[in-house]
Write a sequence for this structure.
């Protein structure tokens, strides 16, 4: 696959505090990349830097293998970014959607382009005559997305596109976003807390923690804080009161990961080296690998992903809202920092 | 009391009959305030935009200076402009003293900080998301300037009306720089001052009514524009 965006040694600081530190990141043309991570992990900053609307403190951004600068006239028309709280101009819906086209010097066929973009986000063309103050939060979000889709961008970067909208709007927005890749081969970079949707649609998920990239194969990130339990073990108390044990943590604030394949959903008693926790099934998804199902289990606010073979899944009949035991070995937790 | 009432009656007569002296002062006021408002808006809006939009070292200091200039006394501006454009001043060779252009220069200095400060406040008051949105849609710096100004249009209208109010009603600059010369640099406010001193209340009241009508017209157009935009 052809690289479309590449970051090299990118660092970004606010008031001398490093909020982003990415040695290398390559995004490929036409792919859908998910950005996951807790609040304040640097997702929005990374999206602004990738979309060339913010200058990073150091490092280089390559677009189609050419080093580019933020606000670069040649490239700023190829990328577009939908902020978490988009601003609608104090004009009609038509003017809002046509704005990006007009700044690109497109004057002909505006009505048709706006109508097409509105249709993608589930509005009739007559919606174009509405004033900005006549829109609800969900409608405003869809209009803001339509303004980006009208540009038929090479890259579309979205920051929590469904964070403050109702379920119906969220579904429409999800469909509209995917149509961009289907229609124009747009590369999509999506930051979202909607983990199950990211798992479903993304070719790749990048996990960010404290401004650093974690390998995308790591699903179960354990952020601590850790307390000493014994000479060999550390313990983290989850919000539901259960203890999660790990090998000795390097420090109290260390972050670790548990590879999904190494967790077992099993009712049998734990072996000598194993520990058991119990959680609620919040979702069941089909993995990209054939014959594998992913189960999301919540223990308080800690989410775990456990992989299970299709035959076991069908035999045991796992369903959402079911309480299930999970077995793991504390020594399987890998420390990242 | 009767002389005041008589003054009002005579004032309406003067206006109705098209008294040339009265209308000369009105015309001079309109000319000079149009020039000063045009200059202050053309210079003040871009400067106010830059002050409100950009973050730069010393911004707070610049803002403090601009805000201080909001309360510049008109006689002080008149004094400074007089010193610069009088024969002994550095701009004396241009012969601007006791001309409408001279008054317009002084009034532009009066209006400029008002336009800059209120424009900067309007631009600062816009949501920070606007800048990000415009950049994300691919706007150039020039397009961002015009779009931001349009988004802040209500604040800019208020800035223009406030500045126009100050320019129309000032006496100090017109008196000191213009010299209150009949048929030439006599504006409404200097004429009112002179006629009142002479005991000619009718002319003073007539001119005062014209000033009120101008203020009313400006505010009416503002409220009409508000409804339209």
């Amino acid at each position: 696959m052809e690289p479309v965006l590449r970051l090299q040694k990118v660092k970004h600081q606010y008031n001398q505090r490093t909020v982003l530190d990415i040695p290398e990141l390559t995004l490929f043309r036409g792919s859908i990349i998910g950005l996951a991570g807790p609040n304040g992990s640097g997702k929005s900053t990374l999206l602004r830097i990738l979309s060339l609307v913010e200058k990073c403190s150091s490092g280089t951004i390559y677009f189609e293998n050419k080093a580019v600068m933020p606000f670069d006239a040649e490239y700023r028309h190829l990328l577009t970014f939908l902020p978490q709280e988009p601003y609608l101009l104090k004009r009609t819906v038509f003017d809002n959607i046509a704005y990006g086209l007009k700044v690109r010097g497109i004057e002909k066929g505006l009505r048709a382009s706006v109508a097409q973009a509105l249709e993608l986000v589930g509005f009739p063309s007559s919606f174009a005559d509405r004033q900005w103050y006549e829109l609800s939060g969900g409608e405003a979000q869809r209009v803001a997305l339509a303004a980006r889709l009208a540009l038929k961008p090479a890259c579309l970067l979205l920051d929590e596109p469904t964070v403050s909208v109702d379920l119906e709007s969220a579904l429409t927005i999800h469909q509209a976003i995917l149509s961009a890749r289907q229609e124009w081969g747009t590369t999509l970079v999506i930051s979202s807390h909607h983990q199950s949707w990211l798992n479903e649609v993304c070719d790749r998920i990048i996990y960010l923690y404290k401004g650093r990239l974690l390998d995308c194969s790591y699903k179960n990130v354990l952020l601590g804080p850790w307390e000493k339990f014994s000479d060999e073990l550390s313990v983290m108390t989850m919000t539901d009161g259960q203890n999660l044990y790990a090998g000795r943590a390097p420090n109290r604030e260390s972050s670790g990961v548990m590879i999904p394949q190494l967790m077992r959903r099993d009712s049998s008693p734990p072996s000598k080296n194993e520990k058991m926790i119990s959680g609620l099934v919040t979702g069941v998804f089909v993995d990209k690998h054939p014959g594998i199902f992913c189960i999301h289990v919540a223990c308080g606010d800690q989410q775990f992903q456990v992989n299970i073979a299709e035959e076991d899944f069908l035999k045991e009949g796992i369903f959402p809202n079911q309480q299930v035991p999970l077995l793991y070995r504390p020594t399987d937790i890998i420390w990242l920092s | 009391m009767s002389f005041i009432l008589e003054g009002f009656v005579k004032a309406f007569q003067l206006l109705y009959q098209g008294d040339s002296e009265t209308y000369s002062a009105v015309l001079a006021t309109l000319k000079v305030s149009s020039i000063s408002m045009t200059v202050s808006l053309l210079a003040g809006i871009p400067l106010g935009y830059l002050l409100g939009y950009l973050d730069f070292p010393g911004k707070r200091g610049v803002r403090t200076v601009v805000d201080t200039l909001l309360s510049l006394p008109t006689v002080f501006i008149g004094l400074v402009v007089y010193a610069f454009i009088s024969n002994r001043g550095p701009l004396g060779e241009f012969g601007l003293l006791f001309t409408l252009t001279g008054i317009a220069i002084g009034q532009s200095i009066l209006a400029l900080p008002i336009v800059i400060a209120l424009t900067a406040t309007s631009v600062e008051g816009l949501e920070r998301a606007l800048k990000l949105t415009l950049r994300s849609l691919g706007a150039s710096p020039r397009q961002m300037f015009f779009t931001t100004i349009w988004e802040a249009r209500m604040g800019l209208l208020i800035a223009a009306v406030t500045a126009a109010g100050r320019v129309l009603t000032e006496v100090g600059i017109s008196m000191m720089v213009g010299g209150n010369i009949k048929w030439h640099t006599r504006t409404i406010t200097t004429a009112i001052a002179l006629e009142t001193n002479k005991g000619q209340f009718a002319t003073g009241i007539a001119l005062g009514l014209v000033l009120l009508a101008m203020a009313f017209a400006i505010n009416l157009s503002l409220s009409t524009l508000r409804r339209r935009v």
Observations:
- Chain B touches chain A at residues 127, 129-130, 132-133, 135-141, 143, 147, 151 (CB under 8 Å).
- The first helix of chain B runs from residue 2 to 17.
